[in-house]
Design brief:
Blueprint lengths: L1 E6 L3 H12 L4 E7 L2 H9 L5 E4 L8 H9 L6 E6 L5 H6 L4 E4 L4 H15 L7 E6 L2 E6 L5 E5 L2 E5 L4 E4 L3 H7 L5 E5 L2 E4 L3 E7 L2 E6 L2 E4 L5 H10 L7
Helix pairs in contact: 2-3
Protein name: DNA-binding response regulator
GO molecular function, one term: DNA binding
InterPro entries: CheY-like_superfamily (IPR011006), LytR-like (IPR046947), LytTR_DNA-bd_dom (IPR007492), Sig_transdc_resp-reg_receiver (IPR001789)
Length: 238
């Protein structure tokens, strides 16, 4: 079970997030703090596996608390929960596991808990990618990218929540991300194998479904796509 601390200077926000976390079977104790000072006191008592931190708090901010956590010998996982994205870059420089925007959706929170659980089980921290959107620099997790679409010398990264244009050709990403489970299905598409839900040989050509999107598979790439999907099939013992 994951014991968590919820920190926000607004009590209704604390109670709402604590309620959502309490509904998750992976969560154990849910502690609460409405100030940075209270949070530091709770952290000093130990036995906290993860902290869900608001950034904008008077006196001791969420970034201050995360900095103190980063200097500890056995730091809990940190998830920032905030109303804006202005501090995303600073958050991930402090090794935050995730960055949630208010109002927090239950399904998005569940993904954060899953990431914390993976880290507790010895999994590696996900690679972060810096992207720019609307004049804002954001950090996204590579394992949130479901597929990539070529757009000239650029590539558009698609996630469940949004899409981001980066100035990297698709061919370069194909080489750089091959070991992370991304495969080329078409001259215009690179897909994350773990997000593939089905493949179908349709009348208008083979297609693969990735996070609800139907994407074409070229004849050239069909054999490798079949091979990769076949490798994930569960077989009985001989």
């Amino acid at each position: 079970m994951i014991n968590v601390l919820v920190v926000d200077d607004e009590l209704p926000a604390v109670e709402e997030l604590a309620f959502l976390l309490g509904r998750d079977d992976r969560i154990g104790k849910v502690l609460r703090a409405t100030s940075g000072a209270e949070a530091l006191t709770a952290l000093s008592a130990g036995s906290i596996d993860a902290v869900f931190l608001d950034i904008h708090m008077p006196a001791v901010s969420g970034l201050d608390i995360a900095g103190a956590i980063a200097r500890s010998s056995n730091p809990p996982a940190v998830v920032f929960v905030t109303a804006d994205e202005d501090h995303a870059l600073a958050a991930f420089e402090l090794a935050a596991v995730d960055y949630l925007l208010k109002p927090v959706r239950a399904e998005r929170l569940a993904r954060s808990v899953g990431r914390i659980s993976e880290l507790r089980d010895g999994g590696a921290a996900a690679e972060m990618i810096t992207v720019d959107q609307g004049g804002t620099t954001r950090m996204i997790r590579r394992d949130d990218v479901t597929y990539v679409q070529a757009q000239g010398d650029y590539a558009r990264l698609h996630t469940a929540d949004a899409s981001y244009l980066i100035r990297v050709p698709l061919a370069d990403l194909e080489q750089q991300w091959a070991d992370a489970g991304f495969i080329r299905t078409h001259r215009s598409y690179l897909v994350a194998l773990k997000h593939v839900s089905s493949m179908k040989l349709a009348a208008d050509g083979p297609r693969v479904t990735v996070a609800g999107a139907g994407l074409p598979i070229s004849r050239r790439h069909l054999p490798i796509v079949r091979e990769k999907l076949e490798a994930t099939r569960i077989r009985p013992h001989a």
